Amino acid sequence: MTGKCVAKARGAGICEKLCYRYTIPSGDLIARMTFFSVLLALIFEQVRALSTQNPIYNLIRSHATHTSQSFDAGQPRHGVLAWLVVVVPFVLVVGVVYYLLMRVNIFLGFAWNVLIVYLTMGFRQFSHYFTDIHVALNNDNVNEAREILRQWIGIDTVDMPVDEIVRHTLLHAVIASHRHVFGVFFWFLMPVGPAGAVLYRLAEYLSRRWTEAAPDRSPAFGAFARKAFYVIDWVPARLTAIGFAIVGNFEDAIYAWRHFAKQWPNENEGILLAAGSGALGARLTGPLAEVSSVDALNQGDDAVLPVGGECTPRTLQAAVGLVWRAVLLWMLLLLLLTLAVWLG
């Protein structure tokens, strides 16, 4: 072999080593680390809860507020541009960083996954209100429970009876558990990985923030944010409802889903609340909440009857168990998928 040929062979060997070193890990390696990313993030979140006033959240809030003030000129297309300006940069940055870290070292990509999941998913981002209300009711401190509920959801709670306090707490807890845990979980499992989790949380935040009534915001501005999140949340909402049905009262959950989900203006939320109420055996929505409204329903063999009983403080504890069982269900399914990929 000539010197020129030897040089070419050596060059090819170096290129092969470089390509091997900087090639993104295969899909099975990524699938293996997904389970552990979610598991570690949930453990870290339970050990040290993320404050809602952390610098990342403050940056997003400030950016969303400034963008809405700059783009809102009363036309729906301005809301589309503003949504893209807020969402796309964050999603791209998270996705590009993940791509680069995975090319350098899989453990760096793994650490990035854990960080992003920790920032986007977790019970403790909303559960302190739920826990404080539960403790107050257990101590028969109804006035304190009313005040905490008022601070949480911003409604008038003066003279609100205990069953209504529990019902409103459960309504918001079911939605919050989906948006902070199960919805993020679904999008993190998509091929885009952590970028999907960021997309979901940003879309949820803008849908909620830009549709709130404000004197300096036109009604048309938040229309696209609301529609975009509806599409993004369509599949996750139904999977969460199925999870509630599996780990709760399956028959009542499916029955409530079929008959009461459409009572809510937001279809995704209606499915979650109906399935959650049936799984819990608690009257949360429409005829599930108000016995008097049953009189307006068709009577006879095809009558639609309410599901579950009155909401009591014990129902709050049952809701905690339902959500954790649903988390364990999806984690178990992810673990089985990981093992199948690992062994296969």
Automatic annotation (TrEMBL):
Pathway: Cofactor biosynthesis; adenosylcobalamin biosynthesis
Alphabetized GO MF terms: ABC-type vitamin B12 transporter activity; threonine-phosphate decarboxylase activity
Signal peptide interval: none
Major location (coarse): membrane
Membrane-spanning segments: 29-47, 80-101, 106-123, 180-200, 322-343
Domain of life: Bacteria
Any single Gene Ontology cellular-component annotation: plasma membrane
Keywords, sorted A to Z: Cell membrane, Cobalamin biosynthesis, Membrane, Transmembrane, Transmembrane helix
Topological relation to the membrane, as annotated: Multi-pass membrane protein
Subcellular location: Cell membrane
GO aspect biological process, one term: cobalamin biosynthetic process
InterPro entries, alphabetized: Cobalamin_biosynth_CobD/CbiB (IPR004485)
Job description of the protein: Converts cobyric acid to cobinamide by the addition of aminopropanol on the F carboxylic group.
PANTHER family, A to Z: COBALAMIN BIOSYNTHESIS PROTEIN CBIB (PTHR34308)
Stated family: Belongs to the CobD/CbiB family.
Name of the molecule in the record: Cobalamin biosynthesis protein CobD
Gene (name only): cbiB
